[in-house]
Specification:
It is built from 13 helices and 22 strands. It is an alpha/beta fold. The protein folds into two domains: 220 residues, D-Maltodextrin-Binding Protein, domain 2 (3-Layer(aba) Sandwich); 180 residues, D-Maltodextrin-Binding Protein, domain 2. The strands form seven sheets. Strands 1, 2, 3, 6, 10, 11, 12, 13 and 18 form a nine-stranded mixed beta sheet that branches.
């Protein structure tokens, strides 16, 4: 990130999460939370320091959620509450999976569930290579924690005087990342944006000429340089809408993956590390466009940046702005086929891109917390002794995180969409399946 963006990032993140802090005192004091925040002295929670990290899609959520969880737990349990949970490591979805498998993270987060098969290939085959119990998918529990949308953030400050953002279709987005559309005033973009125009009228106020006002400026696409669930959702959207039209120069169809296929990118494309890196690159250079979780648009605007997010044409042909409402509408289009985990540990029905519903914003997805199902015998897991108490603390944090009156209030205040009730039910089912030495954790 540039120094300017880095310097303002933390302040902006704190500002966005201010509502979370306000909610912390009220909710914790009322004891009306669904998640159990009761800790006894025998739990030793105040001394436990479980490490968490992964998806940068989740970073604004977890950064506030950890602080708010500790505050609310202190309101309920006083000195017995946890106080030492470290900051969330925003290292990307692939690194989050690697971390939880290596047991350097107690919780690894990813925007694409571990073990996902795409085009007949297991995206995590290189991670889950061992035949022992420590490296099989069934040894982990995968819990949906946030629902969010990906904005097409762009930097064209010369268009601020126009009342509407730039509109893009999936075809144009694919063409930009394929290197087929290279100028902002390309005819295809201009045709889709007739209101962004220089208009001349005669004395009778009749329009006599209309000229596209989009600049004759090179488009610089920004992509994720690291293994990224955000990239997976983005390419899943392009694959869903473009299919065989979205190919590498060699003609190979680009299937969703966590590593962005750089083979089809134009030479001027920029790789950014994590959502913060992509957001920084877009805010720093005029003419750029990049895909980021919506919270990063809010953060950029809170720093004073003039970036905008494009309207995207959805499956109904509507020009839709990204917002919690439009992302929620997209997710609701898939309510009849909710996410579920099979007997082999694979999560299915998690993709929610391009919902065929009026008002849907089409680039959206869930993100997942991944934890070991049973910590007995691990020794150390995520910087803490893999004890029953440590596992219970992590399970309680995740339980609180998915609750409507708990962590989902933090999610909402940071631009995410509160989890639908049927997804919370799945999350609770997954958390309830956690055991220690094959015995229930006994969470209430």
């Amino acid at each position: 990130m540039t120094k300017t963006f880095r310097g303002k990032f933390g302040v902006a993140l704190a500002t966005l999460g201010l509502l979370s802090t306000v909610l912390a005192g009220a909710a914790g004091a009322s004891a009306s939370l669904n998640g159990d925040l009761t800790f006894a002295a025998s739990d030793g929670a105040a001394a436990l320091t479980p490490a968490m990290g992964g998806s940068t899609f989740d970073f604004p959520f977890f950064s506030q959620a950890i602080q708010t969880f500790e505050t609310q737990a202190a309101n309920v349990s006083g000195a017995n509450a946890p106080t030492q949970v470290p900051s969330y490591g925003a290292v990307g979805s692939t690194a989050g999976k690697k971390g939880v498998i290596a047991e350097t993270y107690a919780v690894g987060a990813s925007d694409v569930p571990m073990g996902t098969v795409s085009n007949g290939v297991n995206l995590d085959s290189s991670l889950l290579t061992g035949a022992d119990a420590a490296h099989t998918l069934n040894s982990y529990v995968q819990i949906p924690v946030v629902l969010g949308g990906e904005a097409m953030m762009y930097n064209l400050p010369m268009l601020k005087k126009y009342k509407t953002p730039v509109t893009l279709s999936s075809t144009l987005i694919a063409d930009i990342y394929d290197g087929k559309v290279t100028k902002w005033n390309d005819t295809k973009i201009c045709q889709l944006n007739p209101s962004i125009a220089i208009i001349k009228k005669n004395k009778k106020h009749r329009v006599i000429s209309r000229k596209c006002a989009l600049p004759n400026l090179s488009i610089t696409p920004v992509f994720r340089s690291d293994g990224s669930g955000t990239s997976y959702i983005f390419s899943d959207y392009l694959h869903s809408t473009q299919g065989a039209n979205y190919k590498t120069p060699g003609g190979t169809e680009v299937y969703p993956n966590t590593t962005f296929n750089q083979g089809q990118l134009p030479a001027n494309a920029i790789g950014g590390y994590g959502n913060p890196g992509v957001a920084s690159d877009v805010t720093s250079k005029t003419g750029t466009i990049g895909y980021v979780e919506y919270a990063y648009v809010l953060i950029a605007k809170a720093t004073g940046s003039s970036v905008s997010s494009a309207l995207v044409i959805n499956a109904k042909g509507q020009r839709i702005a990204i917002s919690p409402t439009s992302v929620a509408t997209d997710a609701a289009a898939f309510s009849a086929t909710p996410p579920k985990e099979g007997s082999d540990g694979t999560v299915s029905n998690f993709s929610i891109v391009n919902g065929n519903t009026s008002g849907s914003y089409p680039i959206a997805g869930y993100s997942w917390a991944i934890v070991r199902q049973d910590w007995n015998g691990l020794g150390t897991n995520g910087s803490v002794s893999a004890s029953l108490n440590a596992e219970k603390l992590v399970a309680k944090f995740l339980d609180w995180s998915v609750q409507t009156k708990g962590g989902q209030q933090v999610a909402k205040s940071n631009g995410y969409v509160p989890l639908p009730s049927y997804v919370i039910a799945l999350a609770e089912q997954q958390i309830a399946s956690m055991t220690y030495n094959k015995a229930s954790l006994g969470l209430s």
